[in-house]
Write a structure and sequence with these properties.
It contains eleven helices and three strands; from the N terminus they run H-H-E-H-H-E-E-H-H-H-H-H-H-H. By secondary structure, it is mostly helical. The two termini are 23 Å apart.
């Protein structure tokens, strides 16, 4: 925990002069997604508030916001913890992804599309794979899908999926088999990108739907086993 708090203190500069609960929640959301606070971790008000230099009330409001996003859970007389998802949570996350991401591709309109962000995420994933950084591949994969959602040019959709992707990272941290989990999807991201570059929305949507179905099956298989073992 000491190392995580030291890194968190480095984020203090991001708060600037407007240390609002929303800014604090943004920082904590990113840190949770990155695995600094793994699922099941108790978050100390005193330690985190001290590291960020914010009041107890501000931190509690940030915790409330993240609890609303289902990233944290408050346990009576025990404190605030990073949420451990159930298998049903994971399945619901993928249902939401399929509904939203496929709809984004279906509604793109006529090509060409602004695909620089997607292409950049593919490059990022390939570079991480060459370096054997499989968690980095997972991060690049999330970036790819976030950029895909961004093609809708909808702030509301982006905000919804930001929370969904953060929850997804909670599942990834429990699975903890990053190479097996993420490596197969490097090539599949490339295939989706190439279909969109060719203006073939139907093919891109079909590839994406198959991708999400396969990913769900893989994640749930390992997740169910890991959660069972931890229980």
């Amino acid at each position: 925990m000491a190392e995580q708090l030291k890194d968190l203190a480095d984020d203090r500069a991001l708060l600037g002069r407007t240390s609002t609960a929303e800014r604090v929640s943004d920082i904590l959301r990113s840190r949770i997604a990155e695995g600094y606070f793994p699922p099941g971790t108790r978050l100390s008000e005193d330690s985190i508030g001290g590291a960020l230099g914010v009041s107890r009330n501000t931190l509690r409001e940030a915790f409330r916001l993240l609890t609303h996003e289902r990233l944290l859970v408050h346990e009576l007389n025990r404190g605030v913890f990073v949420r451990v998802l159930t298998v049903e949570d994971v399945e619901d996350i993928y249902r939401t992804r399929r509904l939203v991401e496929c709809a984004v591709v279906r509604g793109l309109g006529e090509p060409p599309y602004g695909l620089d962000g997607l292409a950049g995420a593919v490059v990022e994933g390939r570079r991480a794979a060459r370096e054997g950084d499989w968690k980095g591949v997972g991060t690049a994969n999330i970036h790819f899908h976030r950029e895909l959602v961004a093609l809708a040019a909808s702030e509301r959709t982006a905000e919804l999926m930001r929370s969904v992707f953060a929850e997804l990272r909670l599942a990834f941290h429990v699975v903890d088999e990053p190479q097996r989990l993420h490596e197969p999807y490097i090539a599949r991201n490339v295939a989706i990108l190439e279909a969109l570059q060719a203006g073939d929305r139907e093919r891109a949507e079909n590839l994406l739907a198959g991708y999400l179905d396969d990913s769900l099956e893989r994640v749930v298989e390992v997740y169910r086993r890991r959660v069972g073992e931890d229980g």
